[in-house]
Amino acid sequence: xxxxxxxxxxxxxxxxxxxxxxxxxxxxxxxxxxxxxxxxxxxxxxxxxxxxxxxxxxxxxxxxxxxxxxxxxxxxxxxxxxxxxxxxxxxxxxxxxxxxxxxxxxxxxxxxxxxxxxxxxxxxxxxxxxxxxxxxxxxxxxxxxxxxxxxxxxxxxxxxxxxxxxxxxxxxxxxxxxxxxxxxxxxxxxxxxxxxxxxxxxxxxxxxxxxxxxxxxxxxxxxxxxxxxxxxxxxxxxxxxxxxxxxxxxxxxxxxxxxxxxxxxxxxxxxxxxxxxxxxxxxxxxxxxxxxxxxxxxxxxxxxxxxxxxxxxxxxxxxxxxxxxxxxxxxxxxxxxxxxxxxxxxxxxxxxxxxxxxxxxxxxxxxxxxxxxxxxxxxxxxxxxxxxxxxxxxxxxxx
Length: 399
Known about the structure:
Number of helices: 12
Number of domains: 2
Number of strands: 17
Radius of gyration: 27 Å
Shape: globular
Mean pLDDT: 82
Strand content: 15-25%
Low-confidence stretches: 1-37, 63-74, 77-83
Helix content: 25-40%
CATH class of the largest domain: Alpha Beta
Order of helices and strands: EEHHEHEEEEHEHEEEHEEEHEHHHEHEH
CATH topology of the largest domain: TIM Barrel
Structural class: alpha/beta
Largest sheet: 10 strands, mixed
């Protein structure tokens, strides 16, 4: 059984129960000192309890086995609904950190682990199958007894590869339901007793998912793995409840103004660029090309970058591309960045910042740790806004 059923941040959810004498199980209230009970009586009492203990252990093992099979085959689903999570219980006294949770759905508790560490950005790979999809195992093992895995045309699924998708791991179950519930809980309707709306000076228009930093938005990323236009068209209805509440940061093309909300939603991977461009109010943003932002651009490039800044709030780029190729990347994989490499990276970061665009670098070094942490420090020093991280605990604790 998943640890999320048993504890939250190391705190047991099952309340402590005082011990009581075994005599109370038999319906007697009299306590008897075992020293004055003959040996045969003691043995008989032990036998009386043995079947019950065996049955209890069997039931616990059986339930655990079923939960393991369901989680392995069907996916984790929305386990967050089993516990009454709130913004306060997740992020109170938690320092926010400029971390991007890469492939966040790999976590033990997608989204919730990231928030508990104060991570401001999470990414999920999403899939849509307009004709449905059926995965049938060809292995000659007992796995075939579980049957096919079927994926509906009216759902969006979360996973790194189509081969390992699970029917219960939907975008709603792993992310959207939890985010909507957390933010709604943090933003109750406020009215005076005469039914007029209550407002108070200094309070933000909306509270976000970080208790101590209510103005800080959550950067939510959907990495589109299937057809760009089709997948985005399927995503849009799922966003309507967030739009109705005013929770999504959006760009008004008529007034050329940015309206802030507690969520910044960015699309990456396969981009529906033309569909988003055509929208008068853009509730999603496109991952910009960090490689395009550099100080060597000419006047014609400037207008392109200006347009990009209206479509993108964050620009990303691979470390290998930014360093200029495989040779420089290989050199960086074994040591700290050279001054030349750091300067090259900083040029892209500074240029993006001139256009009001935040930055992220992916495809970095994950091992050895001393090189990875050295790169993190350089990124932070030169102004990278979101550190692309796989090991959240290490980045939160050691960096």
